[in-house]
Chaperone protein DnaJ (Amycolatopsis taiwanensis), 392 residues
Amino acid sequence: MSAREWIGKDFYRELGVSSDASADEIKRAYRKLARANHPDANPGNTTAEQKFKAVSEAYGVLSDPVKRKEYDEARRLFGSGGAGGFGFPGAGGSGGFDMSDLFGQSGSGGGGFGGLGDILGGLFGRRGGAGTSANRPQRGADVETDVRIEFSEAVRGATLPLRLSSPATCETCHGNGARPGTQPRVCSNCGGSGLVNRSQGAFAFSEPCRECRGRGKIIDDPCPECGGEGISTRTRTLTVRVPPGVDDNQRIRLAGQGEPGRGGAASGDLYVRVHVTPHPVFGRTGNDLTIAVPVSFTELALGTTITVPTLDGKVSVKVPAGTASGRVLRARGKGIRKRDGSLGDLLVTLQVAVPSQLDAAQKKALEALAEASGGHDPRPEITRMLRESGAG
């Protein structure tokens, strides 16, 4: 895509966010729209496919702080309308002033609009003051997707197949945009640089070549698969290795598996965000597993040994006599394996279970216990405060 087309798009509108949206808001909006319009969820729906491409393109710009800054600078300087709203030639606006002159850099005579060239140079494939080509290689955008795994898989690790529909190098033309058997030709108007020089009074300016739209090459016979872009949406299957002990909402990076680069540049990265399904019994604190175990009053009062499940089997835990409800006991080495090979612990929280109904024998036994307890006060501090306040 040429620089003018890039500026002329309203990426904030594509994602349905405001121009001052935070990075998290942009990410949430992209993930919602990408899921809703994903080709796998809308087979044969060309409208959804085009929307998926549009939101992916918008996220690729707005998720990159450098690209977003350059894009915002352009919107502030030239307005935030749709395509053709920036005063480019053929935009349909009144007057004959060619705003594209402002994107050039001043010549050796000094002065002119070189400052704007510095600000917007990145949009045209160059930085202010540098004579690089407008079609210089550009690294591919990063891509993010989501997977959901079971609790036990998060603890032990897993290898998962990942089916992904995303922009990728066109397999028909291998990324050059030309129909197989043909090749793009160097633009004769700019000599392959993507830029042409113009003089206006005492100043010299550079602007994107109108013949090749700043690409430096012209495709006479475009690839039927990608329409000359060199990139098409395709479905591929990757293998993702989830390391043991992965946390919920953690991202795994697959280098070079994102969108393909342009002009021979490296591809972006693929980030896989992991969502862990909660376990019905176990919880987690760092590398420790947690479990709440109901026990009876007599077990806490007299002491006992209880059997507690683990993810790999079971373990015996000794409950000392006189243990209070809510106490946490530790079974060492029964938690999650750490990266250095050591193991976390299993934290067992004891919770006294009170029966909702008592039969006659149970009630009689408890009444006898209460009588035998005599004057034992289980709430001494509260009793003291009540006496001091005169309410006791």
Confidence is low (pLDDT under 50) at residues 80-134. The CA atoms of residues 140 and 261 lie 4 Å apart. Residues 283-354 form a domain with the HSP40/DNAj peptide-binding domain fold (CATH 2.60.260.20). The longest strand covers residues 158-169.
